[in-house]
Amino acid sequence: MASRKLRCIVCGRVFYEGQGVKIVAGGHELVFHSKSCALKFLRSLLLYIDQKELERAVKNALKEFEERLKELEEASKKRIEKVY
Ligand SMILES: [Zn+2]
């Protein structure tokens, strides 16, 4: 099966589908050859988002990850209790 060739939208490097990072956002498929190119693009993207909207989005994303961390911590606490 031939993989599709993709081009990193940040640095122009050509790579095969399945490698790199793909993000679908705003009706676009954004492809990057590496995480660092994706990060570069996302940092720039943040500057163009309405700051009020961004504030709300950051708050929601923070909450999501904080809850995930809490769950992880509780799960590892339970594991420790089981061991002792
Ligand atoms: Zn790149």
Put simply, the count of helices is 2
**C-alpha geometry:** flat
Structural class: alpha+beta
Give the integer mean of the pLDDT values.
Answer: 93
Fold topology:
Layout: E1 5-7, E2 14-16, E3 21-25, E4 28-32, H1 35-48, H2 51-83
Antiparallel strand pairs: 1-2, 3-4
The structure holds zinc ion.
Briefly summarize what is shown.
This protein has about 80 residues and is α+β, with helices and mostly antiparallel strands. It folds into two domains: about 1-50, Ribosomal Protein L24e, Chain: T, CATH 2.30.170; about 50-84.
Tell me what the structure shows:
The protein has two domains: 1-48, Ribosomal Protein L24e, Chain: T (Roll), CATH 2.30.170; 49-84. The chain has two helices and four strands. It has helices at residues 35-48, 51-83; strands spanning 5-7, 14-16, 21-25, 28-32. The strands form two sheets. A two-stranded antiparallel ribbon has the order 1-2. Strands 3-4 form a two-stranded antiparallel sheet. The longest helix is centred in the C-terminal third of the chain and has 33 residues, at 51-83. The radius of gyration is 19 Å and the shape is flat. The chain binds zinc ion. Residues 8, 10-11, 13, 32-34, 37 line the site of zinc ion (ZN). Zinc ion binds next to loops.
